Amino acid sequence: MSNHPEIDRAAEAAGSAPIGGETSGPRLVHEEGIAYVEGCDVPIWRLEMVRRAGRSPAALMKVFPVLTPEALDLAAAYARQHPDEIDARIRECGPMEVSAEDEGEDDEAEIRADLDGIFEEFGEVFRRLAQ
């Protein structure tokens, strides 16, 4: 058990341990001081930022197929238990405006070559989808 009862309850409901211990359910891990759901390369602060922006759990699981409802519950419990940490990370690393200066000029030839490469590589998939 951790020092975070809410996380422990969420982990128990998911059939896992929040940090450490053997489990088949979702677990929290820390890499370089940042909390993640094990197996997902998206930090919990980013999942929380997206949740606050109104994205549904179904949308998150579609974008990040390694996430399960239990993993999202565990991430949400962690975010509720550590609001200062999560809010600080969102302020520090959250979405930023990219100025037109930093954006650079579009190179139409490079864009066309990139698209041609994508269509060549995934052409069969696109043809099947179009049917």
Written account of the structure:
This protein is mainly α and 131 residues long. The chain folds into two domains: 5-93, Winged helix-like DNA-binding domain superfamily/Winged helix DNA-binding domain (Arc Repressor Mutant, subunit A), CATH 1.10.10.10; 101-130. The chain has seven helices and two strands; from the N terminus they run αββαααααα. The chain has helices at residues 5-14, 44-52, 57-63, 69-81, 83-93, 100-103, 108-130; strands at residues 28-31, 34-37. A two-stranded antiparallel sheet has the order 1-2. Strand 1 and strand 2 form a beta hairpin. The protein is extended.
Considering the chains and any ligands shown, give keywords for the structure.
6% strand, two-stranded antiparallel ribbon, 131 residues, 2 domains, Arc Repressor Mutant, subunit A, mainly alpha, 7 helices
Low-confidence stretches: 10-22
Supply the helix-strand structural class: mainly alpha
Integer tally of domains: 2
Order of helices and strands: HEEHHHHHH
The tally of helices reads 7
Largest pleated sheet: 2 strands, antiparallel
Share of helical residues: 55-70%
Estimate the strand proportion.
Answer: 5-15%
Mean pLDDT metric:
78
Distance between the termini: 53 Å
Give me the side-by-side strand order of the main sheet. 1-2
> What sort of overall outline do the alpha carbons produce when their principal axes are compared?
extended
At the first level of CATH, the class of the largest domain is Mainly Alpha
The fourth-level CATH homologous superfamily of the largest domain is: Winged helix-like DNA-binding domain superfamily/Winged helix DNA-binding domain
Query: Which value, in Å, is the CA radius of gyration?
Result: 19 Å
Annotated CATH architecture of the largest domain? Orthogonal Bundle
**Extended strand count:** 2
CATH topology of the largest domain: Arc Repressor Mutant, subunit A
